[in-house]
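ARCHIVE CARD
Drawer: 12
Card no.: 0347
Subject: one protein chain, sequence and derived structure
Cross-reference: see card 0346
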Amino acid sequence: MWSYIAKRILLMIPTLIGVLTLTFVVIQFVPGGPVEQAVHDLRRGNAEGGGGGGGFGMRAHTGVDAQQIAQLKALYGFDKPPLERYLSMLGKFARFDLGESYFRHQSVWSLIVSKLPVSISIGLWTFFITYLISVPLGIAKAVRNGSRFDVATSLIVLIGFAIPGFVLGVLLLVLFGGGTFLQLFPLRNLTSDNWATLSLGGKIVDYLWHITLPVVASVVGSFAIVTMLTKNAFLDEIRKQYVLTARAKGLSERRVLWKHVFRNALLPLIVGFPAAFIGAFFTGSLLIETLFSLDGLGLLSYESVVRRDYPVVLGTLYLFTLIGLATKLISDLCYVWVDPRIQFKQLER
């Protein structure tokens, strides 16, 4: 096992380097970089009456001269050759130094940590609600396969899957967020302005009050995949020979279902737990966050790309890629843990 884990960890290194290299190369050819944006801000500040020159600590002149541009390049590190900047980036990332944002004047680590509460809130609630509802529903559908219950629930979850989360979010705001009908839920942030003064019970209620609509908009579209995966997995197991043998021995249907079928049928779901759980933190919807005025990782990533905030872009990409590779390794290890018939030699093929 340890040799397999060591090999997988070693294989992560070229994958990480490849992702970072490709992104770094693309960045070199993208127009409107941070220097160009800073020059634009300086010129706009000068045109509006002179002054501070965009907050860079330089005296404004008519236009932007070559000295100012050279100072901006030095400020952002673009006075160095691309290869030197690339090697410096790899060295910092090897020490888990993600650098500092060009425009927010914060370290990338502190930015990510500050946005995590929103992503964790939406992600965790979406993950737990999805599995708590979808797994029992999928089992019930498999047991009642072909019944009216099966057909009706399939129709409901598929309709939910077909409705984009952003569209559902708009509908929820119109109905319950002070739109055309009722104002039952707040429109922005995870907590109220007076959250610090509330009691413990009041804080919990206030938090749940704020998170209800974003979570509903995010979770409805997730039911179909997990529900149908659970149903199909149970149906495949129910039709196998060992189930027929257990029934022939006189075992009750409940005992056959929960003792024999349950463990084997849940194998695909259990193996997918690590990826789904970790993904819940880092796959927040940009549209959902924007719609409900939630400042999370999705909005941070989008704004960083638009503003060409390369340390944030590369830092978050590095971190998310590393987490994704580690999650894939954990998922493979779960195969062996859940099903002893699978050996590490089989995973290496």
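Annotation on reverse: The chain is about 70% helix and 0% strand. The radius of gyration is 26 Å.
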